[in-house]
């Protein structure tokens, strides 16, 4: 069976299916006759849960680290809490409640107590109690729950959706790819799959309903589909494709330490997008010339609480020091949309991607913003720092952000801290209002970086997470290309540079057009860098300049795609 979705992360995988489902626990209130049996069931569920959590703990220590593993020690402690135990047993013995209902009632009371506490750390414990309780109840109801940290053989994960933190938990050694019902190419789990270098297909609408555990699957992350129970012939074909890909990678790798030059010696910079200091290894391994986007929100998302100024300083310093004096663009917090913080209560919004996110949220939480800016400024002396504000819509927002940055700079100097005078300040161009007014913005920033993941969703009014409108992700559409041209031309007129850190920068059909439009820096998943450097080494800037001029007058996305892919294939021969 062939299941079609959206190609989200390159590569081919062949492995067994692992369905990652969130269990539906239908807890009914019953009155039981046999109290002894109910108590025994409870004991059994508790001890099975402890065994499982112990296993997760050991896997986490082995695959991630001891610090993360300790979370599960706390989970075991919850299960052994004498007060909770007493209350559950009381409800079974005195009220004759069934064990699942009794456990749910008590654990919910405990969660609510934690939640109402003033201390953020204790508040967080509510989620732990609920997590543990779900496991115990699943045993009582005989409904299995899947747990990605328990995976210990090579699999392709099949899920309805994966949040960025689910994705972060996947163990690369065993998870050879994933495929989901929902999501688009620029949803953050797709972006993370690219940085984890595992093939992924998203937005299939119903893959979870179509496949069974342990079925063999071929996952084609290049073309965006999966094949279940493949024939011998299909398996042979795909194993050959895997080998060809390996051969190509060897050729691309010869350019690892070379500058990025076209055949006619036009030079551009190929940088990488990262989500944490750990990604720097991949940046270096893949020969990127800098970091064009450090998404700092993952530092916040992989935490139980707001990271302190010192914690942030350490992360930023680490990244700045690791790449000599190469350009490092660090983006301030871009939370909201599909990125949430478990510890930050955000009011529900009808349109989170159009809501109180990113810079908007920082400007209304100045203390939160200042903590990050201070950490960035303190780190500025350790490398070539470029600070970038996300989701700017108006010049007023930019001016306000710059003013807060200036205040932080002054405060740090007054405290006797060292701050560089040479860092640059730029913005993401991801809202059409900024692209249209780029000539004015260019006078007030040091650089632009075009965020096409959002610029495309806002230009075509199509939610980047909604697979039903995924056809409106149109990176080659002349309307978008014209907007991009306006931004690049406006920056060059003011003598500043423009980069792109949206996924489009690493797209093998779009990149040559962007080259022709005069883009200075291309920032992409580290794994796309060498392929793009190889592509540019085979084409001429002058040819791409003419091609870009031509396609700006085409009508549709498809026309541009067809024209460019034919042209590139001919030139590459
Ligand atoms: C973008 O919008 O293109 C971008 C790079 O930012 P993010 O994907 O994190 O929204
Ligand atoms: Mg964005």
Across the major sheet, the strand order is 1-8-7-3-4-5-6-2
Helix/strand class = alpha/beta
The largest sheet, given as strand count, sense and whether it forms a barrel, is: 8 strands, mixed
User: In the CATH hierarchy, what is the class of the largest domain?
Assistant: Alpha Beta
Basic shape: globular
Total helical segments: 23
**Rg result:** 26 Å
Provide the CATH superfamily of the largest domain. Phosphoenolpyruvate-binding domains
Quaternary class: single chain
Can you tell me about this structure?
- The protein is of the alpha/beta class and 573 residues long.
- The protein contains 23 helices and 17 strands.
- The protein folds into three domains: 2-22 and 147-250, 3-Layer(bba) Sandwich (Glucose Oxidase, domain 1), CATH 3.50.30; 35-141, Orthogonal Bundle (Enzyme I, Chain A, domain 2); 254-572, TIM Barrel.
- Helix content is 49%, strand content 14%.
- The strands form two sheets. Strands 1-8-7-3-4-5-6-2 form an eight-stranded mixed beta sheet. It has an eight-stranded parallel β-barrel with strand order 10-11-12-13-14-15-16-17, surrounded by four helices.
- Helix 2 packs across helix 5 and helix 4 (99-115) packs antiparallel against helix 5 (120-141).
- The longest helix has 29 residues, at 35-63.
- The radius of gyration is 26 Å and the shape is globular.
- The protein starts with a strand and ends with a helix.
- Bound molecules: phosphoenolpyruvate (PEP) and magnesium ion (MG).
- Phosphoenolpyruvate (PEP) binds at residues 186, 293, 295, 334, 430, 451-454, 501-502.
């Amino acid at each position: 069976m062939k299941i079609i979705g959206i190609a989200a992360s390159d590569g081919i995988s062949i492995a067994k299916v692992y369905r990652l489902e969130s269990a539906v626990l239908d807890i009914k209130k019953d009155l039981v006759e046999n109290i002894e049996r109910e108590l025994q069931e409870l004991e059994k569920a508790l001890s099975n849960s402890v065994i499982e959590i112990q296993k997760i703990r050991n896997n986490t220590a082995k695959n991630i680290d001891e610090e993360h593993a300790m979370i599960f020690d706390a989970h075991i402690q919850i299960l052994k809490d004498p007060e909770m135990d007493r209350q559950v047993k009381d409800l079974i013995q005195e009220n004759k409640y069934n064990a699942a209902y009794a456990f749910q009632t008590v654990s919910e009371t405990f969660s609510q107590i934690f939640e109402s506490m003033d201390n953020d750390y204790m508040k967080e414990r509510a989620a732990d109690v609920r997590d543990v309780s779900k496991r115990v109840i699943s045993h009582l109801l005989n409904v299995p729950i899947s747990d990605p940290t328990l995976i210990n053989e090579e699999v392709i994960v099949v899920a309805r959706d994966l949040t960025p933190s689910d994705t972060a938990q996947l163990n690369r050694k065993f998870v050879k790819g994933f495929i989901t019902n929902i999501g688009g190419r620029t949803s953050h789990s797709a972006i993370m799959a690219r940085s984890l270098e595992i093939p992924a297909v998203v937005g299939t609408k119903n893959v979870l309903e179509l496949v069974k555990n342990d079925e063999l699957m071929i996952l084609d992350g290049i073309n965006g589909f999966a094949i279940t129970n493949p024939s011998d012939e299909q398996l042979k074909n795909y194993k050959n494709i895997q080998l060809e890909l390996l051969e190509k990678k060897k050729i691309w790798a010869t350019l690892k330490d070379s500058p990025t030059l076209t055949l006619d010696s036009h030079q551009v910079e190929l940088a990488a997008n990262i989500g944490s200091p750990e990604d720097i290894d991949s940046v270096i391994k893949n020969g990127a010339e800098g970091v064009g986007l450090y998404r700092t929100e993952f530092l916040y998302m992989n935490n139980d609480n707001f990271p302190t100024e010192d914690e942030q300083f350490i992360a930023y310093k680490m990244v700045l020091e690791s790449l000599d004096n190469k350009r490092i663009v660090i983006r301030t917090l871009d939370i909201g949309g599909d990125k949430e913080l478990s510890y930050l209560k955000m009011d529900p919004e009808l349109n989170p991607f159009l809501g109180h996110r990113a810079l908007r949220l920082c400007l209304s939480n100045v203390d939160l913003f200042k903590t990050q800016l201070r950490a960035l400024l303190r780190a500025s002396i350790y490398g070539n720092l470029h600070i970038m504000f996300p989701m700017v819509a108006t010049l007023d927002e930019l001016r306000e952000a710059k003013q807060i940055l200036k205040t932080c700079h002054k405060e740090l100097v007054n405290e006797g801290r060292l701050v560089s005078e040479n860092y640059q300040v730029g913005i993401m161009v991801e809202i059409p209002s900024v692209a249209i007014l780029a000539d004015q913005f260019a006078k007030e920033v040091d650089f632009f970086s075009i965020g096409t993941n959002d610029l495309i969703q806002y230009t075509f009014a199509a939610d980047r997470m909604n697979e039903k409108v995924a056809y409106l992700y149109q990176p080659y559409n002349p309307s978008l290309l014209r907007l991009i041209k306006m931004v690049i031309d406006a920056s060059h007129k003011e003598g500043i540079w423009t980069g792109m850190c949206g996924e489009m920068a690493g797209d093998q059909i779009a990149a040559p057009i962007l080259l022709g439009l005069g883009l200075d820096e291309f920032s992409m998943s580290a794994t796309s860098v060498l392929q793009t450097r190889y592509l540019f080494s085979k084409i001429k800037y002058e040819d791409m300049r003419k091609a870009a001029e031509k396609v700006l007058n085409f009508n549709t996305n498809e026309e541009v795609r067809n024209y460019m892919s034919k042209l590139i294939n001919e030139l590459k021969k």
